[in-house]
Task: structure prediction
Amino acid sequence: MSDILGSCGIVESRIQAVCISIINRLVDPVAENSLLDWYRSTALADIMKEKLCGVGSDRFYRANDSLLKHQETIETLVRKKTKQLHNPDRTILLYNLTNTHFEGIGDANPKAQRGKKKQGRDDCVQVVIGMVFDTSGFELGHHMFSGNQADSTSLPVMLTKMNEIAGDVVGTDGTKNVLVVMDAGMSSAKNLAAITSAGYTYLVNDRHPLRKRYKEEFFDKSAFTQIEGRDGLTPILVRHLTTETVLDDESVVKEQLLLCMSAARGEKEKAIMSTAETALVDKLEKLKNRIERGGIKTQGDADKALGRLAERYARIYRC
Result:
């Protein structure tokens, strides 16, 4: 790591701070303003055979600024080093999004915005982070988006990152032998067309509202076959279909569709829906009580409250 950071022109004192910060993230994560105290409470000075130069806890903030400045170069060098050491399979790329929120106002960060939060912290601003991994779990690239970035609109930016990563897995016929795996949030027809145009194949989970299209196919149990090699595990039945999707430019794309049935998955879906139904009924009862007590006085306010519940429990409302 020191060699990689040094090649970016980062000075030795900041390389020290970066290494300490990385070790802390892996061992016992604390905030940057607590890192100096944490370092002094450990034997890192003896392990690293050198003491931390200079004073002041803000060194770790400056060190992280240096990493951000050289992000592209560092990620490229780390990918090359990882390939030399482990030679991981990069014919499959996993792409996903996560978010992280700020406890403060975040007004100095233009990307700190309010958006859909996976941690449930609706009171905080956040940023969205897109990340690409290989099947061994090595992080190959990332990009930070605004906190109100929609999952489906993040893909064009990340395709550029994937093109850099996939540069060394081009087949003899000039095509990219790379499969991109994403979740349902990125599976719009426009995104899938962009992936195909970039020379990739893809594997995505269909979105919940669209799965009802195959209700009749699921009823025909005789068309399903059981996946072998799952002794002692819950049986999974699959059915292969070929479908055609008409894009906005009227071109037709053929897709391979795999329908899956699992008793365990069915029970999990029922449990999720049952929990959500119970929560929705409880919220509706509380809304009714507010109306009866006069807490909500107009039809417009009642409609707004119902609209918020419909948005929060959209899957239940669609059933």
Notes: The chain has three domains: 2-69, 88-205, 265-318.
